[in-house]
Predict the structure.
Amino acid sequence: MQKLVRLVLISAVMVGCAVKPVVEEPQEPMTASQELEGSPALSLLASAEQARQQGDNSRAERYLERALNIAPDSSWLYKQLADLRLTEGDARGAEGFALKALRLAPDHPAYQAGLWELVATARDRQGDAAGAKAARERAATLRDPESRKA
Amino acid sequence: MAKKAKKSPAKSRRQPSRKKQPSAQRRRWFSWSFIAKVGLVCLVLGAAGMAYLDALVRERFDSHAWQLPARVYARPVELYEGRVLSRDDMLKLLDLMRYRRDARASTPGSFAVQGNSLLIHTRGFNDSDGGEQSERIRLSLSGGQIRSLEAGGDRLARLEPLQIGSIHPQHAEDRVLVPLDKVPPLLVDMLIATEDRSFYDHHGISLRGLSRAMLANIKAGGLVQGGSTLTQQLVKNFWLSSDRTLSRKLMEMPMALLLELHYSKDQILEAYLNEVYLGQDGARAIHGMGLGAQFLFGRPLEELEPHQLATLVALLKGPSWYDPRRRPERAMERRNTVLQVARDEGALSEADYNKYSARPLEVVPRGASALYAFPAFIDLVRRQLARDYPPEVLSDEGLHIHSTLDVLAQLASEGALKEHLNHRDPKQVKKLNGAVVVVAPAQGDVLALVSNRDSRQAGFNRALDAQRPMGSLAKPAVILSAVEQPETYSLASLVEDGPIQVKLPNGSVWAPQNFDKKAKGAMPMVDVLALSRNQATARLGLDVGLDKVADTMKTLGVTRNIPLYPSILLGSLELTPFEVAMMYQPLATGGFSTRLRSITDVLDKDGKPLARYPVSTDEVVEAGPAFLTQWAMQQVVEEGTARAARAALPSDLKVAGKTGTSDDFRDAWFAGFSANHLAVVWVGRDDNKNAGITGSSGALPVWANLMGKLPQRSLSQNPPPSVEWVWMNEDGRRVSAEGCGNARRYPMLAASIPEDSDGCGTVKQTGKGIKGWFKGLFD
């Protein structure tokens, strides 16, 4: 009986949402400076980016590792490492770093969704279809909270 | 040998000829044609000999003359605004790296103290990210950190990595290659003035030089100049062993001529400077001026002052006879002779001569240099390298190995272990020894490794090879296994601490005792860990399942075979301190497993990157259970068996850890971590006898001391989304509220939060309410 009441209630809320969507302020896209503002790690991040553009991934990685020594809790830096690993074809490494980035991620659904998508790609490339699917669902939920309730 | 030599080709030919020839010709056995024949044979033999020597000379000289052992460097010192670094530590680092005090910091490798700020002229170095140019930086230090830093528009700078050792597995030659254009001209001037004044004029051998040397020696009334040229000396050093047989002497001259024929004076000089033998450091032969400079003065050759250069030149006459450490008077006298000759030859002004011949030898004491000071860590590097490089590459190719060693962490660890053991066992009657492993958990970097109370001593590497029962260090794995089943266990769950008996398959009975031989009755799981209760842990572990606990240990990084005996719950499994660090690393990072590394990069001899050893990480424990376990381990330090550590640490610093003691007080352990340092300490005896120590008394003080000396960051107190703080009734089964009876606050996984409340206070468990509501919905 109690369950039924809850279900009805929840349906009502959902219907309400569907009819009159909540207008949310679109969140600013996540940037490095949100985490690293004023940190000397920013200049290492810039050097890493430059190295990456020059195709020197290994140098980029070294810069990022150094940056992490300065800003060890930066989700953004881990995300860069994950991206780099994926480019280099190390899908397992990419998954590890992306999950670490998620652990440290700020409350920013779009950013977190991007990380889950990265995890999904990395899992796909390791042949883990089920894991990839689960990660994609997490991403979808974060991108569109409505889908969670559907 | 002597017999053979007598039987010369000429003589053997003479015998038959005598028989054949009529007696009239007997007097003329040395006919012209015979002489011509002998001459021809000699010419052919001589030519063959020369061709052989020529090949020998060219092959060795061309096919890269020098065997360069791989050199190992500490991590470069990263300087940036905000870095926690005391002024004392900064000065200690500069001292270790042999930076000179110089009011204007005018040359690389010098610095000046100006009030609160330091002006440092860095040396520059290569790295896989391009490295750093030599530059002048100004940094101000106060309140234990870098307040500001100016470095050519940048806010970051690095000091070159300190060389901490080299790897020469096959033979014990060592060398720091210095190209001729980096050699101080004064050194070359001194060398030529004292050893071979006609170097630029002769063709390898010099009769004039020989006679002049004899004359000079007579004039000086002693041996001030040698007769052989630098080229000859090089030949001797390069190709010939040092024993002075005639055949060697005979080979020396033609080889010197050949060398001069093929190579320029500069090439020969460069080879000489890098090859010449300068002494012995234990099994390690010191070759070349570059290494000599480091060995004697702890500095690069380029940075030496005239009197130090003269000391190096003085050694050429007899490396052990003029050893400045063992024979300072002799070395000083010879050094001043070198300075004098340099002055006479116009290479040194009168004023400089007076100034520098008055200076002391200024040799660094043996063992004071960071080079070869960390044998345990170098051993680890060597083992990791041996997996990837064949020995000949390591001994010959001059690789630069950038390691993860943090000099300050290493020194703090060595000091802490030594201090504690000197206090506990001053006369070494108890034969206590120990090991320390310090790791930066997030990247898995091994920052320090100590394997002996006398850390300079190589030998048994306790940190890597002393395999000991881990005792209660196993308990966090039991707790983690339990909280990974949140429907059944939470940190508030009560566990009975009382006698427990398990019948083993072999018929014997396992009945663990508590440390205090008492039973404390039911207690929350967090206290089981904090107070390290054996009987309660055994009960919990058996309830959770031995196989589950063993799996958890494997997940955390134990690679050994784990037998499924109940005693593993209390740490019968034997691990080395390094393996304990591996097992605790994921606990320190909230569930991310990272391979421990001692090497970050390998560069070739010219500083070109060859290989990287990148960080890699895997999520092995979910955020929730990892947080709970870490929190429980914090209670060990807050109120449990490790609370004595609090006194050595800042009061607001959140750290976690676990004490361990093995049966009969044989092994004392402590393994614990902050957010940025994980340290494992083991203390015990090599013969595995009763050492009369416990984790709290034997190992914890070392841990607390060393952690207190390093910059620390607190463990995060922010639970992951799957965890929330809940006030729990002391029965561990009902929700309560702050201020209610003995209610305590726990981090709880949603599945553990009971629906029932004890009804105390205005219980308003909002978080729980919603979760429970949904939970009920989907049940």
The CA atoms of residues 50 and 105 of chain A lie 24 Å apart. Chain A has two domains: 40-72, 73-150.
